[in-house]
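REVIEWER CHECKLIST
Item 1: Sequence provided? yes
Item 2: Single chain? yes
Item 3: Sequence as submitted:
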Amino acid sequence: MSDLHYGQTMSEAFRMVSGGAAYTATLNFDPDMVILNNLTTWTGTAGGFPRNFWFKDQTTAAHAFQQVVTDTAAGASFNFADLATNGFTTANTSGGVATSQCTISAITQADPCNITHSAFTFQTNQLVRITDLGPVGDATDRGMDELEGKRYRVVVVDATHITLKDPITGEAIDSSAYVAYVSGGRLTLESHSLALNYPQVSPYSDTSPYNPNAFSYDPITYRMTLGSTIMGTDGDVMLLQSFKYGNFVDLGDIG
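Item 4: Structure as written out by the authors:
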C-alpha cells in the first residue's frame, strides 16, 4: 500500500515516560510500521525488551514481535520473540471517506435518471459527485460517460435508490440518451449539509429564516494502543516511531 502522495514517505516520533500500563497514542497518519523503543532497558539485563515492532496487514504470526536481550552482558546479544498478546492494537475511530461514499450497481436511461446503490443513508438535496464510470482504461467502457466526474443533488427514493437533479437549477437529470450503464461507479458525498434553500428537509427545523446545520466532516483519528507487554515498567523512557511508506510493492515469490 502507499500513502495519499505516491512516493512520499511519512514519519513521526513521540517520546514519553511509561506509566507501566497500556497507553493509546494518537498518530497523524495511518502507519505501515510502528516501532516502540524502551530506552531504559536498551542496555539492561538479560530478558529486557528494548524494541517492539508492528507491521500493517501482515499475518498474525508476523505482524508484531519483540527484540529480547539474551545474555547478561547488557545489550551485547539479542533475539526475537513473537508478540502474541498485549502488544500493538489498532484503535482507529470510524469515519472518513468510507462513511461518505457507496458503490453503484445500476443506472437507468430514463427521466429522471435513477441510480441503484449499495445501502447508504442519503438525504434529499445532498450534493454528490459520481466517479469510476465511462472510459477508465478498461477493455470495456463502464458506461454513463455523461455522468462521470460531475456533481448532482440527490432525491431519495428508498434505501438503495436515488434520482439525480441539477445542483443549480434543480431540474431532473434526463439520462434517456446517455451511454448505457455497464458496471462500476461510485457516489461520494461532497458535504454533509443539505441545500441552502426550501423546502425544509428533516432534520432541519422549519424556522424562518432558514438556518441549516453547519457543515460537518467526520475524519478518521488514527490511534494505536500500546499494550502492557511492551510499555515496560513505570518510569521507563519510551520512544515511539511511526512510518508510512511512500510506496509498497509485493513482489511475491521471486524464486
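Item 5: Key structural point noted by reviewer: The domain at 97-189 is CATH 2.40.30.180 (Elongation Factor Tu (Ef-tu); domain 3).
Item 6: Recommendation: ____
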